[in-house]
Design goal:
about 170 residues; mainly beta; three-stranded antiparallel beta sheet; 2 helices; 8 strands; about 25% strand
Length: about 170
Amino acid sequence: MSDANKEALEPITGIESPVYLDYNFTAGAATARYLSKVKEGKLVGQRCPSCRNVYIPPRGACAACGVATTEEVELSNKATVQSFTIVHIPIPGNPIKPPYVIANLIPDGANISFLHLLSECKNEDVRIGMRVEAQWKDPSEWTFAMENIKYYTPIDEPDVPAEEIGRLKDA
């Protein structure tokens, strides 16, 4: 058997095939109001009338109770680190070069976390309970997107004890 025939009989175990997805996002009423507030430099959540959870971004309904959420709650630029990941693997097309920290943050006034970037700190110094604050882009750059916040940075406030993270003071 020739070398060419031997190669033809080798099993194929994988191929590289780039995939490109173009899509348009249509925001529902709760998300549209939220993104409009973000464009104004404000963070808002919605409170569940039943369990009192405050969601950011608002979903229009409580994931725990299944009831509509309409009460808007203005939230602070300050937040608490609930959990975090130090990313070491580059993501294709991502301008942020590893290593960097992505954290689940609970803004003051909410008890459900959202994901954002941490910066201006040593990755190894990030910890659960750490207090952080939003660093917004210049208002001339604001759009209808969470990218209006460049990242969160540590602030000089005591850590929140783990058992208190996500507990609302008025709940």
